[in-house]
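Predict the 3D structure for this chain.
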Amino acid sequence: MQKWVCEPCGYVYDPDYGDPDNGVEPGTTFENIPDDWVCPVCGADKSFFEKTD
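Done. Predicted structure below.
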C-alpha cells in the first residue's frame, strides 16, 4: 500500500501500521482515513500529505 508523508513535519503515514492511537486501524488506506483526521505529530490536515515514491 502507498505511504504518505506530511510535508510540514515529515511524518510518514504507513497503511500497514495505521494510526491506532487516533482511531485509524492498521490496513486503512490514506484515502479511507476520515477527513477530520490530522497528522499525529504536527496537527496538519490531510491536504498537507503527499504520496511517497
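The first strand starts at residue 4 and ends at 6.
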